[in-house]
Amino acid sequence: MNIDVQSLREAGATVQAAFVSLGGLIGVFSTLAVFYLIIRASEAFGRRSPTNE
Predict the structure, then answer these.
(1) Residue 4 burial (C-beta neighbours within 10 Å; 0-12, 13-18, 19+)
(2) What is the rounded distance in angstroms from the CA atom of residue 18 to the CA atom of residue 11?
(3) Using CA atoms, how far apart are residues 32 and 26, in angstroms rounded to an integer?
(4) Shortest CA distance to 23 belongs to which of 41, 46, 49, 3?
């Protein structure tokens, strides 16, 4: 997935805005996925109290 940076610089404002939005969405959902995995791992490996069993 090679994107020519020069062609993106010369693109219109709408295309640039679409790429910025896409990059932001990828960042947000990857962050959410990492936090989800951290929470799941902490639940799986965390110490459980006898009342939660």
Answers:
(1) exposed
(2) 11
(3) 10
(4) 3
d(CA 32, CA 49): 27
Angle 38-41-25 from CA coordinates, rounded to 5°: 30
For the whole model, what pTM was predicted? Answer: 0.65
pLDDT at 53: 53
pLDDT tens-place string over residues 26-35: 999 999 999 9
Per DSSP, helices labelled H in 1-53 are 5-9, 13-45
Show the tokens assigned to 9.
């610089």
Cα(50)–Cα(1) distance, integer angstroms = 51
